[in-house]
Amino acid sequence: DWPDFILFTHEGQRHRLYPCTKIFYTQEAYGPNWNHCDYAILSIKVNDPRAFHLPYYSLWRTPEDLVRPAGVDYRAMLKAKSGFCSFLTWYDDRTVRIRSAFFKKLHARKSVDSAGRALNNTGWRVPLGRAPKLEFLSRYKFNICFENADVPGWTTEKFTDALASGSVPIFWGDSTVKKQFNPEAFIDRRDFASDEACIEHILQVDANDDLYLKYLSAPPFHNNRPNKEWNHERLLDRHGEHQLRPRQANDHRRQR
């Protein structure tokens, strides 16, 4: 009846019934309402000591999927690829117009295979599940993995799935992504003045095996070591001024 802590997410309002310490958690690109919570565990970065950044990609797979072992024959990987670029999306509306527009522009220059529910041009859909998705992505040299929104810290499994499959990501979104991942392992739309300039670069990389192999062989992590976001033990750290603690009012209420 009188919990020390309540964990709640962006759906529902039942947390309002409790006066205890409240922890907001979401995998979506939503920030906390500090009037409703004391702490937050978020997929985005918020400059507040009460907020903890736990990106969704670090919950989706293990960092070992992205660590590059020694002795990989990247030329053989390239030779095994049968397609230019892949694209997977579940919806196409105004909220993702940047992603959809880039797909259409690149597809107008060279065929991009879209096998999701929306903007499908293959006549079939990739089955649900991690294994079918990775198998599909691995066939292609590139994968368009634009995020739904440009929010600091908001990098999802779209990006890490492309890396894990051995496909070079074409990314747009999180402005902090290069702090978490090696910029030599992907093409960042932010590095170019326009979609057209980025597409020209992609086509140049596609036409030059040596240039493409530089991206493909680059370790996704800086120094081939997982970034701190994969270390979930950080959640257990109770040191510092803002350690997780219940409100004193809870003890008083329980005593009454």
Key features of this structure:
single chain; 256 residues; disordered C terminus; four-stranded parallel beta sheet; five-stranded parallel beta sheet; 15% strand; alpha/beta
Report on this structure.
It is a single chain. This protein has 256 residues and is α/β, with parallel strands linked by helices. 30% of the residues lie in helices and 15% in strands. It is built from nine helices and nine strands. It has helices at residues 57-60, 74-80, 97-109, 130-138, 157-165, 177-180, 195-207, 209-217, 248-255; strands at 5-8, 21-25, 39-42, 51-53, 83-87, 112-114, 140-146, 168-172, 187-188. It has a five-stranded parallel sheet with strand order 6-5-7-8-9, with helices on both faces. The chain has a four-stranded parallel sheet with strand order 1-2-3-4, with no helix packed on it. Helix 5 (157-165) links the parallel strand 7 and strand 8 (168-172). The radius of gyration is 21 Å and the shape is globular. The two termini are 13 Å apart. The relative contact order is 0.16. The model is unreliable at 250-256 (pLDDT under 50).
Rounded to the nearest angstrom, the distance between the terminal CA atoms is: 13 Å
Instruction: Work out the oligomeric state of the chains in this entry.
Output: single chain
The SSE string, one letter per element, is EEEEHHEHEHEHEHEHHH
User: What is the rounded Rg?
Assistant: 21 Å
Strand content: 5-15%
Question: What is the 3D form?
Answer: globular
Main β-sheet, spatial strand arrangement: 6-5-7-8-9
- Biggest sheet architecture: 5 strands, parallel
- What is the count of DSSP helices, taking H or I runs of 4+ residues? 9
**Class computed from helices, strands and strand pairing:** alpha/beta
How many beta strands in the DSSP annotation? Answer: 9
Low-confidence stretches: 250-256
Average pLDDT figure: 91
Tell me roughly what share of residues is in helical segments: 25-40%
